[in-house]
Amino acid sequence: QPPAMPPPPPEPRRRSRQLRIGNVLVGGDAPVSVQTMTTTNTADVDATLQQIAEVTAAGCDIIRVAVPTADDAAALPAITARSPIPVIADIHFQPRYVFQAIDAGCAAVRVNPGNIRKFDDRVEDIAKAAADARVPLRIGVNAGSLDPRLLARHGAATAEALVESALWEASLFEEHGFSDIKIAVKHHDPLVVVAANRLLASRCVYPLHLGVTEAGPTLQGSVKSAVAFGILLSEGIGDTIRVSLSAPPLEQVKAGCHILACLGLRPRKLEIVSCPGCGRLQVDIHKLATRVEAAFGGFPHPLRIAVMGCVVNGPGEARAADLGVSSGNGKGQIFVKGKVIATVPEAQIVNRLLEEALRLAQEDPTP
Ligand code: SF4
């Protein structure tokens, strides 16, 4: 038996300059935060607040709302007053909305100084208003909106082009003495996101917001984001994340929280360890795992529940979990904290697991 290799030491966290976004610290040694964007019309205050409440309950730390119209800008005071988490206004072309967002109590504003300069050179005024209100600005670039001059020079939205664009945008504010800046460089290719953020991390001290933009539908987008964020965060790079999916914001937040939990950067919630199934299956494991997942939706205690399809690996995994079932011959052997406590017919497995979970939760009420 060869000696076990010790795990490699974790990479030290990159020490970015810390910002305060409302009551959430970003950068430095602050926990990595999860963001998403609302998909409602921002001007529809009730619908927007409802969506913010849903994502907050799922673990979202900071919410961004798009502000493309005057009605959206006018709705910001009502939203910031009632939102349970800090609100970032996302503004592209209209400098006047930036001032409205700051006055409305937005905790930060996402701006594109390159765009604003094209239309109305008010970068200095924005820097002053943000500094006076102590409101950080998020800047940066998406591959799809890269400055045409940089695109022509680099031939494509390469990592170097994205970083050059972001640092140029930062310099527009730095010229006016403003440096409460967070940067995001986004691309649909996770490997370009990794390369760009590594480069950016080596060239500035600003906190970095990670995102694989236009990542795709839920499965594809979650995988792409997990790959990029997993690499970068394990290297200590990244201060906030957003999983951009063609799916509701709630799914984006759940995916972001899962990624952080897998990396040990956020406490785990309830976890289901279920086997993939193989030719030895003695139960419809996919159906059983789905039923267990549905039964435990929203269960607040961070239990690990093993749902296993046969006796090859079943007892081992079920014993190692807080709660588990090893299935076989129309029955399920129920394990609690490593011990077999019952064998029940297949139809009773889910209910029995739920009963035992509630009992465990009562015995140790601290989730
Ligand atoms: Fe196959 Fe059994 Fe392993 Fe499930 S637990 S994958 S059924 S060997």
From TrEMBL:
Role: Converts 2C-methyl-D-erythritol 2,4-cyclodiphosphate (ME-2,4cPP) into 1-hydroxy-2-methyl-2-(E)-butenyl 4-diphosphate.
A biological process term (GO) from this entry: terpenoid biosynthetic process
This protein's pathway: Isoprenoid biosynthesis; isopentenyl diphosphate biosynthesis via DXP pathway; isopentenyl diphosphate from 1-deoxy-D-xylulose 5-phosphate: step 5/6
This protein's name: 4-hydroxy-3-methylbut-2-en-1-yl diphosphate synthase (flavodoxin)
Binding site for [4Fe-4S] cluster: 275, 278, 310, 317
Similarity annotation: Belongs to the IspG family.
MF terms (GO), sorted A to Z: 4 iron, 4 sulfur cluster binding; 4-hydroxy-3-methylbut-2-en-1-yl diphosphate synthase activity (ferredoxin); 4-hydroxy-3-methylbut-2-enyl-diphosphate synthase activity (flavodoxin); iron ion binding
EC number(s) given by UniProt: 1.17.7.3
UniProt biased composition (Pro residues): 1-10
